[in-house]
Amino acid sequence: MTPRFPSSARDILALFERRGAEAVDVPVIQPADPFLDMAGEDLRRRIFLTESETGESLCLRPEFTIPVCRMHIEAAEAGHRRYAYLGEVFRQRREGGNEFFQAGIEDLGDTDINSADARSLADALALVTMLMPAQALTVSMGDQAVFEAVLASLGLPRGWQQRLARAFGAPDQMAAALEALSSGSGQKTELDDAIAALVARDDRAELEARIAARMTETGISPSAGRSPAEIAGRLIDKARLASVRLAPEAIAALQDFLSISAPLADASSTLQGFAARAGLKIDAALAAFDARVAAIANAGLDLGFIRYDAAFGRPLDYYTGLVFELHAPGQERPVAGGGRYDRLLTLLGAPAPISGVGFSVWLDRTEQAREI
Amino acid sequence: MAVTIALPSKGRLKEQAIAVFENAGYSIRQPEDARQYRASVDGHDGIEIAFLSASEIARELGAGTVDMGVTGEDLVRETLAAWDEKVEISARLGFGHADVIVAVPEVWFDVNTMADLNDVAAEFRMGHGRRLRIATKYWRLTQQFFSRAHGIQVYRIVESLGATEGAPAAGSADVIVDITSTGSTLRANHLKILDDGVILKSQACLVTGKGVLAGAEAALAREIVGRIGDSLR
Question: Would I find rRNA processing among this entry's keywords (chain B) (predicted)?
Answer without folding.
Answer: no
